[in-house]
Amino acid sequence: MDTNQKRPKNRLITDIPEHILADSILSSYSVNEYYTYTQVCKRWSSVLRSDWLWKRHCEARGFHHSTESTPKTKRNCHSEGHRSTAVWRDIYRKRHSVEKRFSRGQYVERKRDSRSAPILDLKTCSASALAACRSGRILVYDLSGSGEPVGREWWTTVTKPKVELVRPLRTGEPFSVKPVAALTCAPLSEGYVGGGYADGSITIWRLGTREAVANWMGHTGGATTSICHVEGSKLSSAGSDGYCRVWDASAASKCVWSSPPPAWEGEDPSMRIKKQYTSISRLDAAIIIAGRKDSSWRAYDTRVGGRQTEVAKCVMKDWCMCVEADDQGSHTVRASDKSVKIFDIRRIASERGEPLQEWHRSSRLLTRFCSDGRYRLVSCGLDGRVLVSSLENDSKQASEVHSEDDYMLACAFDSSRLVVAGLRGKVDIFGFDD
């Protein structure tokens, strides 16, 4: 052995260049671990203040830079001529806190104007758009007006609704300053609309007079997360209490069917979120489809009671945030996690739930999608994008019609208008290019 050969020196953490150390930290540790290790290592503490690290972390999570959401940089009083390096760290903190609230089902954002509170659901009906608002109101926007032309399409942002529907207080309910959030809305039979609330209640209004004709508690153990029209005076609802139910608004007892009770007993409390329903849709007068946070969607036969009421189940790759059934007799079910998947409900058991087609793939969850079943598909998601595709196009290409540096939570369209909304509370209306 050559005794003159120099032995390599032990590399200390202080010898590692900052950008290399930051890259290693980014790939090996979580943000919570960053803060733990800074308590015992000054070198880590200095790296944690590096805006380069936070920029890389934002890019890895899909948090994009936006002038509107970026805080103004300030001069560092300790270093003349240099700017503060907290820009990307502040972007991460803002977006990550919203993401954590979303995962817990808390759609809370501080707003000075209740009109700009987050919009959590959108539906279209009769040249109008219904919007379920975090402030507790169901807002009705007029879609019959014209917008400003932008290229080959027109686009406009509306802030003032045509009609505001307010949930009445139930008998014996004390007046509360804090409003109950409206989580979902839907057109029902001709001239009627419904809304579901965070306290589990369901309200039906006559749209022409804005009169509340029915108001009852639908899900006592959680929020009413989704509703849809079944037929006549019947509607179905899904809740965070782990139940799907069918209601007859004209009946005295209201509830005419309920899904089997979820098995809460003996389970870890953190597992309860997986039993929550996120969306519901009607396949026909007897079959309803519901999406859940346990990464599955299920089909129920409302003519059957007990455990036998579940007639189909399909496991997906992530939370099933939205479902839509084609009620034209085609047996088609569309469901979304990080993409929109199209299934034939008759082939679920024999083909292990493999989708027939897959559209609008994304790195983040798709919060909502809607389609007319044959021609057009629209989706929006946590990546802030709104995508539109033609179902007649075999290439499955999608056009990005809108993008924001924030979550897009709802979308809907009719024959000529596309409506989108999200956490910022503004409603954007687009005209389709005919």
From TrEMBL:
UniProt keyword Electron transport, yes or no: no
Pfam family, one: F-box-like
Keywords annotated in UniProt: Repeat, WD repeat
Stretches assigned to the F-box domain: 15-58
Protein name, per record: F-box domain-containing protein
Organism: Perkinsus olseni (Perkinsus atlanticus)
